Amino acid sequence: MKRAVxxxxxxxxxxYCWYPYARRELxxxxxxxxxxxxxxxxxxxxAKWLPKLREAVGTPDEDTYLxxxxxxxxxxxxxxxxxPAGQRVGGAVLVAGPADDIGYEEIESFFKTPVDFNKAKAxxxxxxxxxxxxxxxxxGLKHGETLKKELGAELIVKHDxxxxxxxxxxxxxxxxxxxxxxxAVVRLSSR
Length: 191
Known about the structure:
Helix content is about 35%, strand content about 15%. The protein is of the alpha/beta class. It has a single domain (about 5-190), classed as Rossmann fold, CATH 3.40.50. A six-stranded parallel β-sheet has the order 2-1-3-4-5-6, with helices on both faces.
């Protein structure tokens, strides 16, 4: 069975912004979907988030699709670069994902070393989709361009979508539906 694991953003929860929508839509298309509550969401630490993602994925296979939002994306990239050679997931969708350090001391544990893009890329069978906004105040569009260049990601640029988050944590208009995520997962899974 095809399955998706959605990794939420800093200060996010499984019920935040567009995650319930993506879960509902993907389940309606036959995916088993998990949105784990990442530990200490208000103080993300790679040493805690990476094991939680490993636990949520279990045994990765080519029917596993990873979806990340913001710091959830760098968690996914760290996970992918840690997989042993020959072990792969089906694909990854990265929403407002940083490709390198974005300058917040609180999340510096995710950026202590540069991402090994070649290793991350080798851990994915059907490729990557990066979804970015042209006015994201936290993760600029240059990160999407880097993900496109380094991972061969399909880059989708949305106009005026901010950080694809919400008023509660980011002080922006709530992003409660993000069809591009669902479409991207379905597209990757049909390759």
